[in-house]
Each structure stands twice: as C-alpha cells, then as structure tokens.
Amino acid sequence: xxxxxLYMWGSPNSRRVSILFxxxxxxxxxxxxxxxxxxxxxxxxxxxxxxxxxxxAVWQENGERRVMFESGAILTxxxxxSGQFLPAGGSSRCETLSWLMVVLTALGPHSAYAHHWSAxxxxxxxxxxxxxxxxxxxxxxxxxxxxxxxxxxxxxYSIADMAAYPWISxxxxxxxxxxxxxxxKRWHADIGSRPAVASGMxxxxxxxCAGR
Length: 212
Ligand SMILES: N[C@@H](CCC(=O)N[C@@H](CS)C(=O)NCC(=O)O)C(=O)O
Description:
By secondary structure, this protein is α+β, with helices and mostly antiparallel strands. It is built from eight helices and four strands, in the order E-H-E-H-E-E-H-H-H-H-H-H. The chain has helices at 12-23, 43-46, 71-82, 90-120, 126-147, 159-168, 182-192, 195-201, and strands at 2-8, 28-32, 56-61, 64-69.
C-alpha cells in the first residue's frame, strides 16, 4: 500500500480512520475537506465518493489505484489487510463485527442527530431531541454494561473501539455526561492514553468538528 491519502474533516467519522492508520503506523497524507465550506461537493471529492462525504481513502495497491469511502468499510478493509485489530475468523471475528456495527449504525448516527437537535437546528423540536437523546442514552447504557464485563468492546482492542472512541469524545453533543457511565468513562480514558489515538484525533491539521 503506497501513496495513501485520507480525505477527512475534524469529525468523529473521519477520525475513526486516522486513528486506525496511526495505530497501523501507515504513512499517509490527511487532506482537509472543510464541510462547513461545502468542499465535500467539489468535483474532485464527488468523483471519489458520489455521496459527497468524508472520510475517503485513496491509495496504490498491486499497481492499481484503490478508492474507499464509508468509515466502517475502510476500517474493515485496512484491518483485514494488516491482520490487526479484527480477528481473521472464529467467534472473535463475529463478536468484533457485531459491536462494530452497533457503533457504526447506532452510536454515530444518533449522537449526530442528538447534536443536530440540541445545538445546530435553528428550530427547536423537543420531541425530536428527546427521541435521539433517548436512543443515544440507550446505546451509552449498552456500551457501559458491555465495558463492565471486559476492557474493550469485543475481546482485544479492535476497530470497534476505534470506531466508538471519537464519538464518545464528543459526548457533550448528545447532552449526556460520561459521569453517568463509569465503565465507558474508564474505557474512554484508557483508549485516549494511546499515542496513536492521540495522533489520529489531532488530524487533519486544520478544521473543527461539525457534527454531521
Ligand atoms: N456513514 C458515513 C458518514 C460520513 C459522514 O457523514 N461524514 C460527514 C463528516 S463526519 C460528512 O462528510 N458530512 C458532509 C455532508 O453530509 O454533506 C461514514 O461513516 O463514513
């Protein structure tokens, strides 16, 4: 794998991938796509991902150019390719993929919707806010209970943890407090102390979280 470029924004979905790339010790260029300035709709970006969203990874492999979008797809591909952070088979692979999907399909989206209704929407809709904060709280409870049983979400440290960490780092977006979820709080501090996680969370070098 050569010439890896990660198109990203300072957002949880993007930082899942920069964390994995740092954990794998990959050399890559993190290119800032400012979604507040609608740069995700630039022809160069839409040519890579017709959905007009980041993260997007572009690299050379076996003499051809590869392009991937969707953070979960990128995490799975690079983890499989490296043989790290996602078991190759057996029940531990089933378990890791199951928790990864909970994080991808529930934690991220409902945290983002809670943020939308609590902070970004110009019209206040209490019913919408309550619904999404309620689902986010259900996921927080689930993760907290899970992390009461073990150090990480699925056995060893994995891409499920990497996918969850950036969203838990912006827990205030959901209006929830980690003080109410002690196992999740312990896990968050533990994961955050990893140098690769700290490096991944600093990327890209410009831009701030938009919460979408
Ligand atoms: N399911 C996608 C979500 C990607 C996503 O929503 N990215 C946001 C930044 S965190 C984005 O590009 N937003 C711009 C837009 O939706 O126009 C993933 O996990 O990669």
